[in-house]
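Lest this sound abstract, we let one protein speak, letters for residues, whole numbers for local backbone shapes, and leave readers to judge:
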Amino acid sequence: MIDKKIIKIASNTENHGMLNNHTHSSKLKNAICGDEMKIYLIVKNDEIRDFRYECESCIYCQASVSLLSRYTKNKSIEKVKSFAKQAKDSFEKNFKSFDKDWEEFDKIMTKNNISRKECLLLPVNVTLDALNKKSL
């Protein structure tokens, strides 16, 4: 059964949609389940100013990208990359919790959701891919 917190988080779609004047973008597909995600970013002075997304994906992926789209705005690329490392480590048994700036992710990236790890990390991976290259 899907946790109600996941559904509530995923239902916030304020940043869903294309961003025409983006500086960075990427599109990846989860090879395991076929979820697809495209991310559009506006990056200025090594800081993410805007974040929009389009996806055809499960509720876990949608919850993850919804949080990511809200919490990366006005954060430095370095902070986002540091978060990405935490996200990848969050399913390990010795992981305690996310840094204060990212604590909302404690609700979804947990050992209880390890079977959905790839779904939850897809938005993180697409964001990192976008940051590592200029817009398509």
User: Anything to note?
Assistant: The first helix runs from residue 4 to 10. The chain is about 35% helix and 20% strand. The mean pLDDT is 93. The chain has one domain: 4-131.
